[in-house]
Design brief:
Length: about 550
């Protein structure tokens, strides 16, 4: 990890810090577009005149592209080098984002979204490996903080930003935001990442093959799409779901069989089959699941029960970026002084505590009622994600993989796959759990709201009297009163289901703490690394 600017054979000087800024910006842009597509799906439906089923494939198509190219980035990065891949994909991504609002046909829009996902999906796996190999070791902790802020904070600003441009600009800025910022990323990459010669296979070494990557990437993307659409398609009763899921699993198995029969020199599976990387993969899945508390569960409650729009939901989430930044910096400070597992566990404990605080909500809660619990969650997210990224980097440092580019690419590709696929599994399970619990509570509450019962008649009579002044006849007032009572039942059932979601997330944090307790202690912690570097400078 060199601190000095790099100079190539032609004498051109490249500043690796600009390269780091470029890959961080790229990772944020890829994440941000996905969040905007999710948050702004209702506005896209209206602008593009799409029904619910057609619009549901907008986010799925983009994320399937991300999922496909994640593992394949290992092949591309090892074969062509990060500079060539990032510059080409960033240019394609920027052009696609600029033209997507003008797609006149639904099939064309979906095709462009898939291509955009394929281009943007290279940003994330290549970013971490480049940062690790180019940032000086004494600044590694600051790199961790920047990387964590880059990924986590971008997920919390989408509601506010989408609400603002829908009010002041146009829905087209869902795409144009990335189209405008990606050229800046390209400038940073061009000035900060030195070109590398194309690798030549060593004598007797197997020739790199793209087939195994293609099988696995395509299979993972199809499984992702099946999970993303499963709830809407009613799972195994849908031929589309069955075709996607079964075919995806078959391709993943084919990729595994091919790798063991014909090992690929661009991937090193034994490096990630160690105890700590496998356990931290589960921790990453749990973190993505816990993150749903802030980015999905709370907005769902506010939108469904309190009828908040994105502009009103935004402030509830936006301010969390500030405590997350401070928590991240505090986590970086602690990483240089105590065991990384303590920081990681403390973060998940705080996230679980925040979920327990939210589990006491009622249908009368508004955005301000979440302030304290959201603060606890934000602090937990900052500690947990910085602790997780710090643990991953510390494992790489202890393994000696910093000088082995293939190991770094394998590591990054593996965790990109886990980040996307594991996050989708958690999101899919949460959607299914929320719907199931809402149906359960609706049935239970409905048992106490039966037609003809004294309590129901009394409530209907009161609502009818309240509606009398606004209705032309008694029958109209009675109909409106019945609708209001049904709406009250639905709101109460949804509130109880949201409470169950928070309790589930709290239980997930406890399960993750158990996994963290099984992480092996690493011989070299950041405090030893920093002390060694300080002694060398002295």
């Amino acid at each position: 990890m060199s601190e000095a600017p790099q100079e190539n054979a032609s004498g051109r000087i490249y500043n690796p810090y600009l390269g780091i800024a470029g890959v961080l910006l790229g990772a944020a842009l890829a994440t941000f577009l996905g969040r905007l597509l999710s948050v702004g799906i209702a506005d896209l439906r209206g602008a593009l005149h799409l029904d619910f089923d057609a619009a549901s494939w907008i986010g799925t198509s983009y994320n399937m592209g991300l999922m496909f190219i994640g593992p394949f980035s290992v092949y591309l990065g090892g074969l062509l080098g990060p500079r060539r891949v990032l510059l080409a994909c960033a240019a394609i991504f920027s052009v696609l984002c600029a033209f997507m609002p003008f797609a006149t046909h639904y099939s064309l829009l979906i095709t462009l979204l898939v291509l955009a996902g394929l281009a943007a999906g290279t940003f994330y796996p290549l970013s971490l490996s480049f940062i690790l190999r180019n940032i000086p070791q004494r600044y590694a902790l600051y790199g961790i903080a920047a990387y964590a802020v880059d990924i986590v904070v971008s997920t919390h600003i989408a509601h506010s930003y989408e609400g603002w441009f829908m009010t002041s600009l146009s829905w087209r800025w869902i795409f144009w935001t990335d189209a405008c910022l990606t050229p800046l990323m390209m400038i940073f990459v061009y000035l900060g990442i030195a070109p590398q010669p194309l690798p030549q296979p060593k004598p007797g070494q197997p020739t790199p093959s793209w087939r195994g990557f293609l099988y696995f990437s395509l299979g993972a993307a199809m499984v992702f799409g099946a999970l993303d659409q499963g709830q809407r398609l009613d799972w195994w009763s849908s031929r589309t779901f069955v075709a996607l899921f079964v075919t995806g699993i078959f391709l993943v198995v084919c990729a595994a069989v091919r790798h063991f029969l014909l090992p690929n020199p661009l991937i090193n599976f034994p490096f990630i089959r160690r105890r700590n990387p496998l356990l931290m993969a589960f921790v990453l899945v749990f973190f993505r699941f816990m993150l749903l508390s802030a980015v999905v569960v709370v907005p769902s409650y506010l939108a469904s029960v309190q009828s908040y729009n994105n502009q009103e939901v935004g402030p509830v989430l936006l301010w969390l970026a500030i405590p997350q930044i401070f928590a991240g910096l505090f986590a970086v400070y602690l990483l240089g002084r105590i065991d990384n597992r303590i920081i990681l566990g403390s973060g998940f404990a705080l996230m679980g505590l925040g979920c327990l605080m939210n589990a006491s909500l009622s249908s009368a809660w508004s955005g301000t009622n979440f302030m304290t619990s959201q603060l606890v969650l934000a602090l937990g997210e900052g500690l947990a994600f910085n602790g997780l990224v710090g643990s991953l980097i510390l494992d790489i440092l202890n393994s000696g993989a910093m000088s082995r580019g293939i190991d770094l690419l394998t590591f990054s590709g593996f965790f990109q796959t886990i980040r996307l696929l594991g996050g989708e599994i958690g999101s899919t399970f949460m959607q299914h759990f929320l719907q199931t619990r809402e149906q359960f509570h609706s049935n239970i509450v409905g048992l106490h709201v039966q037609a003809g019962s004294p309590a129901t008649n009394e409530r209907i009579a009161g609502l009818t009297a309240a509606m009398g002044a606004q209705a032309s006849t008694h029958d109209v007032a009675l109909g409106r009163a019945s609708d209001l009572l049904a709406l009250t039942v639905r709101k109460q059932a949804f509130t109880l289901a949201i409470t169950d979601c928070f309790l589930l997330l709290a239980c997930a944090s406890v399960a993750c703490l158990v996994i963290i307790s099984f992480l092996e202690p690493l011989k070299v912690q950041y405090k030893q690394l920093l002390a060694s570097l300080k002694a060398q400078r002295a």
